[in-house]
Amino acid sequence: MLPQDPTAPQDSLHRLIHHACVDSTNEQALLAVAAGTARHGDVHLADEQTAGRGRLGRTWASPAGAGLYASLVLMPAAPAPPPETLTAAAGLAIVGAVTELGVQGAQLRWPNDVLVAGAKLAGILVETRGLDPAAPHFVLGIGLNLLQRELPAEFLRGRIVTNLELLRGVAPREEVLGCLLKHLDRRLDQAREDAAALARDFVACAGLADAPVCIQYGITTATGILRELNWEEGLLLEDASGESQRIPLPFVHAVDPLG
User: Which domain covers residue 44, as residue numbers?
Assistant: First the structure.
């Protein structure tokens, strides 16, 4: 777990805030931060979300009892970590947790999806609002399909989904959450203590290490061999002529394997 700001409210590592039905666990967590009632390590958990959200303004379908909808409050000491490290830590934690629970073949898709056999099992959304560099805060949202078998067409957009029940049988939500938080704490520690190793693990889990890729950034597309992910310097891409270029992470929309 990231070390918290010593001025932030302190208590046990994780305080669970349960919601029956809310707009979004991320929204509730952000509101708690704004109100000054949030604690580092708080977990907002909902049975149902009416306005769950994902990356690029997408909607996350969140029917009652069909998924794990959770948001973790992080109030780390300054300076703030790159938010990309939090997304990577969460993705690797989900893969580690579902693997421990018996799922085989889970992997990452850049930057924030967990797939099994090409079908989406989980997604991640890291947000902050009015970030103060002297007192940073983040909300790390996770949506994990437990029982969803069918989703409305407007949610799918050509994608296929899977769920934990299909992959390994029924698992109580509390068991899944406990396993996930264990892996998440470990990966967040890694993000702080050895960000380079986290980057290598993320690239490997996404099947992108020294692999031919297509990178979409800004309004540009580039292809080549992905040689490195560096949280500060960006992606190192080697083209067919052997020339290398750095692509800053904030401009990257997608990194897809070729072949």
Answer: 16-205
